[in-house]
Amino acid sequence: MHIVLIPGLWLDGSSWDQVVPILEQAGHTTHPLTLPGMESKDADRSAVTLQDHVDAVVAAIDAVPEDEGKVLVVGHSLGSALAYAAADARPDRVARTVYIGGFPAKDGEPLGAFAAENGEIPLPSWEDIGEDDLKDLDDAARADFRSRAIPSPEQVTTDPVRLTDDRRYDVPATVICPEFSAGQLRAWIDAGEPPVQEFTRLRDVEYVDLPTGHWPQFSRPENLGRAINDAAAR
Fold first, then answer.
1. Model confidence at 203, in pLDDT bands (50, 70, 90)?
2. Helix (H) or strand (E) holding 128
3. CB of 195 within 8 A of CB of 133?
4. Quick count: other Cβ atoms within 10 Å of Cβ 132?
Protein backbone atom coordinates (compact mmCIF):
# COMPACT_ATOMS: atom_id res chain seq x y z
CA MET A 1 0.00 0.00 0.00
CA HIS A 2 1.09 3.58 -0.60
CA ILE A 3 1.39 5.50 2.68
CA VAL A 4 1.51 9.31 2.79
CA LEU A 5 3.21 10.56 5.97
CA ILE A 6 2.38 14.10 7.11
CA PRO A 7 4.56 15.72 9.79
CA GLY A 8 3.25 18.06 12.45
CA LEU A 9 4.55 21.52 13.26
CA TRP A 10 8.29 22.21 13.12
CA LEU A 11 9.14 19.04 11.20
CA ASP A 12 9.87 18.00 7.62
CA GLY A 13 9.73 14.65 5.87
CA SER A 14 12.96 13.47 7.50
CA SER A 15 11.11 13.26 10.82
CA TRP A 16 9.74 9.91 9.60
CA ASP A 17 13.20 8.43 8.89
CA GLN A 18 13.08 5.93 11.77
CA VAL A 19 9.53 4.82 10.89
CA VAL A 20 9.89 4.43 7.13
CA PRO A 21 12.05 1.25 7.28
CA ILE A 22 9.43 -0.56 9.38
CA LEU A 23 6.74 0.32 6.85
CA GLU A 24 8.84 -0.57 3.82
CA GLN A 25 9.90 -3.89 5.35
CA ALA A 26 6.18 -4.73 5.46
CA GLY A 27 6.00 -4.10 1.71
CA HIS A 28 4.55 -0.60 1.71
CA THR A 29 5.62 2.37 -0.41
CA THR A 30 6.12 5.47 1.70
CA HIS A 31 5.74 9.14 0.84
CA PRO A 32 7.09 11.27 3.74
CA LEU A 33 6.14 14.85 2.98
CA THR A 34 8.04 18.08 3.42
CA LEU A 35 5.27 20.64 3.30
CA PRO A 36 5.51 24.10 1.67
CA GLY A 37 7.66 26.50 3.65
CA MET A 38 9.32 23.66 5.55
CA GLU A 39 12.12 23.02 3.08
CA SER A 40 14.70 24.70 5.31
CA LYS A 41 15.04 27.10 8.19
CA ASP A 42 15.71 29.84 5.67
CA ALA A 43 12.70 29.14 3.43
CA ASP A 44 10.21 31.94 2.79
CA ARG A 45 7.09 31.05 4.79
CA SER A 46 5.45 34.47 4.74
CA ALA A 47 2.75 33.61 2.19
CA VAL A 48 2.25 29.89 2.92
CA THR A 49 -1.37 29.09 3.81
CA LEU A 50 -3.25 26.17 5.29
CA GLN A 51 -4.64 25.42 1.84
CA ASP A 52 -1.08 25.18 0.48
CA HIS A 53 -0.41 22.38 2.97
CA VAL A 54 -3.69 20.61 2.21
CA ASP A 55 -2.98 20.89 -1.52
CA ALA A 56 0.47 19.32 -1.01
CA VAL A 57 -1.10 16.29 0.69
CA VAL A 58 -3.76 15.98 -2.02
CA ALA A 59 -1.06 16.18 -4.70
CA ALA A 60 0.77 13.28 -3.04
CA ILE A 61 -2.43 11.23 -3.12
CA ASP A 62 -3.08 12.14 -6.75
CA ALA A 63 0.46 11.11 -7.68
CA VAL A 64 -0.33 7.49 -6.75
CA PRO A 65 -1.70 5.69 -9.84
CA GLU A 66 -5.31 4.69 -9.31
CA ASP A 67 -4.60 1.15 -10.45
CA GLU A 68 -2.26 0.78 -7.44
CA GLY A 69 -5.14 1.13 -5.03
CA LYS A 70 -6.23 3.52 -2.37
CA VAL A 71 -3.80 5.40 -0.12
CA LEU A 72 -3.26 5.31 3.64
CA VAL A 73 -2.87 8.89 4.89
CA VAL A 74 -1.04 9.35 8.20
CA GLY A 75 -0.90 12.64 10.07
CA HIS A 76 1.04 13.50 13.21
CA SER A 77 -0.28 16.16 15.59
CA LEU A 78 -1.52 19.13 13.55
CA GLY A 79 -0.87 16.98 10.47
CA SER A 80 -3.92 14.98 11.56
CA ALA A 81 -6.13 17.87 10.50
CA LEU A 82 -4.34 17.94 7.13
CA ALA A 83 -4.97 14.21 6.71
CA TYR A 84 -8.65 14.76 7.44
CA ALA A 85 -8.86 17.65 4.98
CA ALA A 86 -7.21 15.46 2.34
CA ALA A 87 -9.78 12.73 3.00
CA ASP A 88 -12.45 15.37 2.45
CA ALA A 89 -10.85 16.36 -0.84
CA ARG A 90 -10.29 12.77 -2.03
CA PRO A 91 -12.69 10.48 -0.13
CA ASP A 92 -12.65 7.98 -3.01
CA ARG A 93 -8.82 7.66 -2.93
CA VAL A 94 -8.14 7.40 0.81
CA ALA A 95 -8.42 3.89 2.26
CA ARG A 96 -7.94 5.00 5.86
CA THR A 97 -6.61 7.93 7.85
CA VAL A 98 -4.28 7.53 10.82
CA TYR A 99 -4.16 10.31 13.40
CA ILE A 100 -1.14 10.30 15.74
CA GLY A 101 -1.52 12.54 18.78
CA GLY A 102 -3.88 14.82 16.89
CA PHE A 103 -7.49 15.29 15.88
CA PRO A 104 -9.55 16.05 12.77
CA ALA A 105 -10.78 19.64 12.75
CA LYS A 106 -14.28 20.66 11.78
CA ASP A 107 -15.16 22.98 8.92
CA GLY A 108 -14.63 26.67 9.58
CA GLU A 109 -12.28 26.46 12.56
CA PRO A 110 -8.56 27.27 12.69
CA LEU A 111 -6.12 24.60 13.82
CA GLY A 112 -4.84 26.26 16.96
CA ALA A 113 -3.27 29.22 18.72
CA PHE A 114 0.53 29.24 18.82
CA ALA A 115 3.01 31.97 19.67
CA ALA A 116 4.22 33.44 16.37
CA GLU A 117 7.05 35.78 15.46
CA ASN A 118 7.16 37.59 12.12
CA GLY A 119 4.61 35.29 10.53
CA GLU A 120 6.11 32.00 11.67
CA ILE A 121 5.90 29.73 14.70
CA PRO A 122 9.22 28.74 16.29
CA LEU A 123 9.61 25.60 18.38
CA PRO A 124 8.76 26.59 21.97
CA SER A 125 11.04 26.02 24.93
CA TRP A 126 10.98 22.58 26.55
CA GLU A 127 9.44 24.20 29.61
CA ASP A 128 6.53 25.49 27.53
CA ILE A 129 6.07 22.12 25.82
CA GLY A 130 6.07 20.18 29.09
CA GLU A 131 7.47 16.87 30.26
CA ASP A 132 4.36 14.84 29.38
CA ASP A 133 4.81 15.62 25.69
CA LEU A 134 8.57 15.04 25.92
CA LYS A 135 8.33 11.67 27.66
CA ASP A 136 10.91 9.09 26.51
CA LEU A 137 13.04 11.72 24.75
CA ASP A 138 16.44 11.89 26.45
CA ASP A 139 18.77 14.88 26.27
CA ALA A 140 20.36 13.69 23.02
CA ALA A 141 16.97 13.16 21.36
CA ARG A 142 15.79 16.57 22.50
CA ALA A 143 18.94 18.20 21.16
CA ASP A 144 18.45 16.44 17.83
CA PHE A 145 14.80 17.54 17.71
CA ARG A 146 15.70 21.16 18.37
CA SER A 147 18.50 21.14 15.80
CA ARG A 148 16.17 19.84 13.11
CA ALA A 149 13.18 22.01 14.07
CA ILE A 150 11.97 24.46 11.40
CA PRO A 151 9.59 27.34 12.16
CA SER A 152 6.11 26.64 10.80
CA PRO A 153 4.04 29.12 8.76
CA GLU A 154 1.66 31.02 11.02
CA GLN A 155 -1.21 30.99 8.51
CA VAL A 156 -1.34 27.20 8.63
CA THR A 157 -2.66 27.48 12.18
CA THR A 158 -4.79 30.62 11.82
CA ASP A 159 -6.61 29.97 8.52
CA PRO A 160 -10.00 28.27 8.90
CA VAL A 161 -10.35 24.68 7.70
CA ARG A 162 -12.59 24.29 4.64
CA LEU A 163 -14.39 20.95 4.25
CA THR A 164 -17.09 20.26 1.66
CA ASP A 165 -17.68 16.52 1.17
CA ASP A 166 -19.56 14.51 3.80
CA ARG A 167 -18.16 11.32 2.32
CA ARG A 168 -15.14 11.97 4.54
CA TYR A 169 -17.20 10.52 7.39
CA ASP A 170 -17.11 7.14 5.63
CA VAL A 171 -13.30 6.99 5.50
CA PRO A 172 -12.17 4.64 8.32
CA ALA A 173 -9.81 6.12 10.89
CA THR A 174 -7.22 4.84 13.34
CA VAL A 175 -6.33 7.12 16.24
CA ILE A 176 -2.94 6.41 17.82
CA CYS A 177 -2.88 7.79 21.36
CA PRO A 178 0.62 8.61 22.68
CA GLU A 179 0.67 11.24 25.45
CA PHE A 180 -3.02 10.64 26.18
CA SER A 181 -4.75 7.27 26.37
CA ALA A 182 -7.61 5.93 24.29
CA GLY A 183 -9.71 5.99 27.44
CA GLN A 184 -8.94 9.65 28.04
CA LEU A 185 -9.79 10.52 24.45
CA ARG A 186 -13.12 8.70 24.62
CA ALA A 187 -13.90 10.54 27.86
CA TRP A 188 -13.18 13.88 26.19
CA ILE A 189 -15.44 12.92 23.29
CA ASP A 190 -18.24 11.85 25.65
CA ALA A 191 -17.86 15.06 27.66
CA GLY A 192 -18.38 17.15 24.53
CA GLU A 193 -14.90 18.70 24.47
CA PRO A 194 -14.90 20.85 21.28
CA PRO A 195 -11.51 19.82 19.77
CA VAL A 196 -12.55 16.15 19.51
CA GLN A 197 -16.18 16.31 18.46
CA GLU A 198 -15.48 15.56 14.81
CA PHE A 199 -14.80 11.97 15.93
CA THR A 200 -18.51 11.59 16.69
CA ARG A 201 -19.29 12.03 12.99
CA LEU A 202 -16.90 9.35 11.74
CA ARG A 203 -18.56 6.00 11.12
CA ASP A 204 -15.54 3.74 11.66
CA VAL A 205 -12.93 4.74 14.25
CA GLU A 206 -10.49 2.58 16.21
CA TYR A 207 -8.35 3.79 19.10
CA VAL A 208 -4.84 2.44 19.73
CA ASP A 209 -2.75 3.13 22.82
CA LEU A 210 0.97 3.84 22.34
CA PRO A 211 2.11 5.19 25.72
CA THR A 212 4.94 7.68 25.27
CA GLY A 213 5.28 11.40 24.61
CA HIS A 214 3.87 13.48 21.77
CA TRP A 215 6.56 12.47 19.28
CA PRO A 216 6.50 8.63 19.01
CA GLN A 217 8.29 8.82 15.65
CA PHE A 218 11.34 9.78 17.76
CA SER A 219 10.66 8.07 21.08
CA ARG A 220 9.13 4.75 19.92
CA PRO A 221 9.53 4.53 16.13
CA GLU A 222 9.36 0.74 15.91
CA ASN A 223 6.12 0.61 17.89
CA LEU A 224 4.69 3.43 15.81
CA GLY A 225 5.68 1.69 12.58
CA ARG A 226 3.98 -1.50 13.69
CA ALA A 227 0.83 0.40 14.64
CA ILE A 228 0.73 2.04 11.19
CA ASN A 229 1.30 -1.37 9.56
CA ASP A 230 -1.65 -2.72 11.55
CA ALA A 231 -3.81 0.14 10.33
CA ALA A 232 -2.74 -0.56 6.73
CA ALA A 233 -3.66 -4.22 7.17
CA ARG A 234 -7.21 -3.21 8.04
1. very high
2. helix 126-129
3. no
4. 11
Interval 95-119: pLDDT, tens: 999 999 999 999 999 998 899 999 9
Average pLDDT of the chain, as a whole number: 97
CATH topology of domain 2-233: Rossmann fold (3.40.50)
CB 169 within 8 A of CB 84: no
Please report the DSSP string for 47-98 in residue order.
T--HHHHHHHHHHHHHTS-GGG--EEEEEETTHHHHHHHHHHH-TTTEEEEE
Name, in order, each residue with C-beta under 8 angstroms of 221's C-beta and a sequence gap of 6 or more: 18, 19, 22
Please enumerate in sequence order all residues whose Cβ is within 8 A of that of 165, keeping only pairs 6 or more positions apart, or say none.
Answer: 88, 89, 91
Instruction: Compute the half-sphere exposure of residue 35: CA atoms within 13 Å on the CB side of its CA.
Output: 31
Phi, psi of 119 (to 5 degrees): 85, 10
Q: How far apart are the first and last CA of the chain?
A: 11
Contacts of 32 (CB under 8 A, 6+ apart): 5, 7, 13, 14, 15, 16, 17, 20
Instruction: Give the tens place of pLDDT for each residue, 132-166.
Output: 999 999 999 999 999 999 999 999 999 999 999 99
**39 C-beta neighbours (distance < 10 Å), count:** 14
What pTM was estimated for this model as a whole? 0.97
